[in-house]
Structure formats: structure tokens, C-alpha cells
Design brief:
The complex is a heterodimer of chains A (about 300) and B (about 290). Chain A is mostly helical. Helices cover about 75% and strands about 0% of the residues of chain A. Chain A is built from 15 helices and no strands. The longest helix of chain B is centred in the first third of the chain and has 34 residues. Helix content of chain B is about 70%, strand content about 0%. Classes of the chains: A mainly alpha (about 300), B mainly alpha (about 290).
Chain lengths: ~300, ~290
């Protein structure tokens, strides 16, 4: 239309100031970059300060925690950590968490992979009927059936054992795992599976030798999400396990807090000991962790 | 594809179905049945029809718990989703060298919520807490208060912790969505001389609208199920000012041993959560196509 006549290209003489403007802009950008990083560091401090305060306080005396909340300890006291670890049974809680989480995640991965493979690749009678409950599981919050669940677990003598949390976490994690792994399998070309069939592989061999290796990215996403949910779960851990020797970290730590309600250095030491390893692992694997958690939740 | 053996799909599905039925499906069905009865767990089960449901609608604490839950939902939408969106805008503004910030903002998501709840109880504590100490150090003694013990501030104080945890999570999903926007869509706006924030609000945010809707859905359903922070930091107090549906439910079932009533409360909660989720999903599909075409 008329656009081109209204806005002719700038004549050569006018292009000079444009360059100068660009130079000025570079300076402005450098300035705004400093401003930007200042803002971002202030925001990061909101995350770092409480965690730093926690670790710092664990090396202080009770008196220093009260009198000088913002200063580092005059003489760092490392013995509190050892005391908290031994007197607080933290080692026991960590061991229980490792056992429960590892077992639950293993059950989730094995069961969900086999089921997802069948749901994704095979036609069989009752497929929709068998898949539907898992959709229900995606919607139902655990609080909506916890009353009956606690009675059922009680009636089969599962309460107050390590088994109860392994089985419960496995069951709770299955819905999402089946759906995520099924989605991954659905996106794979079916020629892979047909080629295996032509080579004479049975259904089970195809699952172990073809599907399993190809699914590494999907499996790791599901694993990260399942590990974090089981490791951090609190409600069932508190309600279903009363024996302190069987408690996992979240419920154990709450019991610990109750026992040592006013021993602040020891409480801070216990919190730090649980937190720091998680932060270290997360910093190393942050890409996988963020992908695992966000993909897992958004599905 | 047809399986080589007719029974192999059933064999593959069986372990998952068995575990899932035992942990979720059978309890969910039994819970609905139990909601029509009275039971203390030890005596005989007594069928009472809809009595538990009528009782719930007259239970003042239960109604307060709903009101608090809805207030909490509004607060977390602002402190988690909106703040998360702002953080995502900030980390995508400059392009590079934002890994440190993204990692820092996401850290709390990976920690057990109990650890965070205990830590923040200290941060809010009257005598040793960071917030009151900070206020005293800056001469603002008048603003100090018992944050978790004051009915006026307790719910807000817990919501702030929830925001501290999840703003980074929503930042991460928005960040991933923003990274997927094709460059050529942004070039035009930048060439026209629009500022970074202008481009963010007028171009990028509308483009990731589907993801924002998912985030709102996640935030609302998540807020209904939250329990850990409330249980550890206030356990519903002071004076039920932080009583939410789940804390009250656990009290009814595991402390008063009122199993039938508890089952009814959880059934109502399920209907409300699933209902809200369905309404939101409906609104999404009505509001136009789900996926934006680039």
C-alpha cells in the first residue's frame, strides 16, 4: 500500500547518529546489567539467608543464637553435629528413608514400565477398563481415602512396619508413572517393536532388551519425581509409623524437634545435616531434577 | 499390536493393578461406603445414611476450614504463580548466566517440607527469629509480633513460606515454556523498540497462556491438599485461624477416632477438588484452542 512511500529508507547521512546511539545503548545495557544482577542477587538472598542462618546457628552456642542472631560464631562448635547425629538417631532416620524410598521407587519403576508397555503396545480385552482406575488415581488426593486406607493397612498388620510406607508410596506413585511412561512409549516408532518381533523376540524379551534401554530418559524423569515424593512424604510417615526406630526423615525430624524443643544449636545441626546433602546432590544433578519434577507435575 | 501370547498383557499389567488397587482403589471405594456409617474403629459399624454429610454442613470449624483454604488458595496464587511468573520474566530477560539464580530459586522444592516448616518456625519465632531480630536491629521494634501465634498474621505467614517454596517451581515450568517460544516471534517486537518488560507482558506471557492455566490448576489443587506446613507450624491454631480442610480431617479421624465422619469430610473434599479441576479444565477448552500455534 502506501506504507513504502510514507517511510523511505533513511539517507546515508542519517545513519551516523544511529551508530552513536548504538554505542550509548551498549553503555546503558552494561549499566542495566549491573542493576539486573543486583536485583537478582537480592532475590537469591531471600533463599540463601534462611538456609545460611540455619547452618551458621548450628555452630553457635545457645547464648549466641539469642544475643547475636546475625553474627557468625565466635568459636565454631563442631561437636553439636556429632551429638545431634548420635543422640538424635538421625542415622537411623536416614537409613529408613533410604530403604523405604529405594524399595518404593523400584516397585514403581518395575510395575509401571511393564504396565505402560502393555497399555501402549498391545490390544487386549478390558484394556480401557484396566487403564481407567489409574486416571482416577491422578485426580484423587491421598486425603480423600486415608480414613479407610489406615483401617485396611491396620487390618492386615501393616501399620508400624517398614513395609507400610514402601507399599503406600509405590501405590501413590504408580498412576503418574504409568501415564508418563505410556506417553514416552506412545511416542516411539512402532517399527522398533515390529522389528524385534520379526527377529523372534517374545513380549518379555522385547520389554527387557528393547524397551528398557530406550526408555532411559523417561525412566530417569519418573525416578527423580518418585524419589523426591517418597523421600519428602510426611503425612503417611507420621500416621502409619509410631516406632521411632522405623521412622523416616520427615516424621523422625518432627519427633526429634519435640524431644529437644529448646536445644536450638542441636535442632539447627539436625536440620543442616538433613538439608546440606540434598542441596549438594541437587546442585550436581540440577538439570535432571528440575526436568523430573516439573515434567512429573505438569503431566 | 497383538501380543505373542494372549495372556502376556495381563501379566504385565497385573503387578501395577494389584499394588494400585490395594493402596488407592479399594481404600477409595471403602472410604465412600464408610462415609454413610458411624465407626470408632473398634465397636460395631453403624449405618447412619446421610447423617455425616448433614453434620458437616452444620460444623462451624469445618466451614472455617473451607474459608481458610480458599483464602490460602488466593494467597498462594499470588505468592507462587504470580511471583513465579515475575521470576521467570527476570531470568529470561538477559539470556545467559542465570543458572545460579534458577538453581537457588528451585532449591526449596527439593527439600522435605517438614525441614522447611521447622526452619521457618524458627525464622518466625518471637525470641530468636530472623524476622523479629531483623526488625529490632533496624529499630522497628513496634512491628515485631508473634507471627505464627497471632490470628491476624498466622495464615499469611504460612502462605509466605509456601510462596518461598513454590515460586521457584512455577518459575521453572514458565522458564521451560518461555524457552520454547520461537525467536522470530520476539524479533519483531524488539525491532519496534519495545522494552524488555513490554515484550514480556505483551508478547511472551500471552504465548505461554496454556502453561499459566496449568499452573493455576496445579496451584489450586495443591493448596487443597497442603498439610505439612500447617501441621508443623500452627496445627490449625491459634483459635482455628489456620485450620484447613486437611488438618481438621486428620484431627477428626486420628484424634477423635470419628471414622465415619472423617470419611464423609474427605468425600466432600474429593467432590470439591475434582469439581473445581473439571470446571477449570472446561474453562480452558472453552477459552479457545489449548495449544498456541506459533
Amino acid at each position: 500500500m502506501t506504507l513504502s512511500t510514507e517511510r523511505p529508507a533513511p539517507p546515508l547521512a542519517q545513519q551516523r547518529p544511529l551508530q552513536r546511539r548504538r554505542a550509548r545503548r551498549t553503555i546503558a545495557v552494561a549499566g542495566s546489567r549491573t542493576l539486573y544482577h543486583t536485583v537478582m542477587i537480592v532475590l537469591s538472598l531471600i533463599y540463601i539467608v534462611p538456609l545460611g542462618w540455619m547452618v551458621m546457628s548450628s555452630f553457635k552456642s545457645k547464648r549466641e543464637i539469642f544475643d547475636a542472631p546475625f553474627s557468625p560464631p565466635a568459636v565454631p562448635d563442631f561437636s553439636t553435629w556429632a551429638e545431634a547425629w548420635e543422640r538424635g538417631n538421625l542415622g537411623g532416620y536416614v537409613l529408613n528413608s533410604v530403604i523405604v524410598t529405594a524399595s518404593a521407587v523400584t516397585i514403581i519403576l518395575l510395575c509401571a514400565l511393564a504396565a505402560a508397555y502393555a497399555f501402549s503396545r498391545f490390544e487386549f480385552r478390558g484394556k480401557t477398563l484396566l487403564l481407567a482406575p489409574f486416571i482416577l488415581g491422578l485426580l484423587l488426593p491421598v486425603q480423600s481415602y486415608i480414613t479407610a486406607q489406615s483401617r485396611i493397612f491396620d487390618s492386615v498388620y501393616l501399620l508400624n512396619t517398614r513395609w507400610v510406607l514402601m507399599v503406600a508410596y509405590a501405590g501413590l506413585g504408580l498412576s503418574l508413572a504409568v501415564f508418563l511412561l505410556k506417553a514416552y512409549l506412545d511416542s516411539m516408532p512402532k517399527e522398533i517393536f515390529e522389528a524385534a518381533r520379526v527377529d523372534g523376540a517374545g513380549d518379555f524379551r522385547t520389554l527387557v532388551q528393547i524397551v528398557l534401554p530406550l526408555m532411559a530418559p523417561g525412566i530417569s524423569t519418573v525416578a527423580v519425581f518418585s524419589i523426591l515424593s517418597a523421600w519428602n512424604e510426611f503425612l503417611l510417615a507420621m500416621l502409619y509409623v509410631q516406632d521411632d526406630d522405623l521412622r523416616t526423615i520427615p516424621a523422625g525430624l518432627l519427633a526429634f524437634t519435640g524431644r529437644h524443643a529448646t536445644d536450638y544449636p542441636m535442632l539447627f545441626a539436625a536440620l543442616s545435616m538433613i538439608t546440606l546433602p540434598v542441596i549438594v546432590v541437587y546442585t550436581i544433578f540440577h538439570k535432571q531434577v528440575i526436568a523430573g519434577v516439573t515434567e512429573g507435575s505438569v503431566q | 499390536m497383538k501380543p505373542t501370547r494372549a495372556w502376556s498383557p495381563y501379566l504385565f499389567v497385573a503387578p501395577a493393578i494389584l499394588v494400585f488397587a490395594f493402596v488407592v482403589l479399594i481404600p477409595a471405594l471403602a472410604n465412600t461406603a464408610l462415609s454413610f456409617a458411624n465407626w470408632s474403629g473398634t465397636d460395631a459399624i453403624q449405618f447412619v445414611g446421610l447423617d455425616n454429610y448433614f453434620r458437616a454442613f452444620r460444623d462451624e470449624i469445618y466451614l472455617v476450614a473451607y474459608r481458610n483454604t480458599f483464602v490460602y488458595i488466593l494467597l498462594t496464587l499470588a505468592l507462587e504463580v504470580v511471583v513465579g511468573l515475575l521470576l521467570a520474566g527476570l531470568v529470561t530477560m538477559q539470556g545467559r548466566r542465570t543458572t545460579f539464580y534458577r538453581v537457588a530459586f528451585f532449591v526449596p522444592v527439593t527439600l522435605p517440607m517438614i525441614v522447611i516448616a521447622i526452619l521457618w518456625s524458627f525464622v518466625y519465632s518471637d525470641d530468636i527469629g530472623l524476622i523479629n531480630s531483623g526488625l529490632r536491629a533496624s529499630g522497628l521494634d513496634g512491628l515485631t509480633r508473634v507471627w505464627l501465634g497471632d490470628p491476624d498474621t498466622a495464615l499469611l505467614a504460612i502462605s509466605v513460606v509456601s510462596g518461598w517454596i513454590y515460586a521457584g517451581f512455577y518459575m521453572a515450568i514458565f522458564y521451560a515454556a518461555l524457552q520454547r517460544i520461537p525467536k522470530h516471534l520476539l524479533e519483531a517486537a524488539t525491532l519496534d523498540g519495545a522494552s524488555q518488560w513490554r515484550v514480556f507482558w505483551s508478547v511472551k506471557v500471552p504465548l505461554i497462556r496454556p502453561m499459566i492455566e496449568v499452573a493455576v490448576l496445579l496451584c489450586i489443587t495443591g493448596a487443597f491438599q497442603s498439610f505439612d506446613l500447617f501441621y508443623v507450624m500452627t496445627n490449625g491454631g491459634p483459635d482455628h485461624s489456620t485450620e484447613i480442610i486437611t488438618t481438621y480431617l486428620v484431627e477428626v479421624v486420628f484424634r477423635y477416632r470419628d471414622l465415619g465422619y472423617g470419611a464423609a469430610l474427605s468425600t466432600i473434599m474429593t467432590v470439591v477438588v475434582v469439581g473445581i479441576a473439571l470446571i477449570l479444565v472446561r474453562m480452558r477448552t472453552k477459552g479457545g484452542s489449548n495449544d498456541i500455534e506459533y
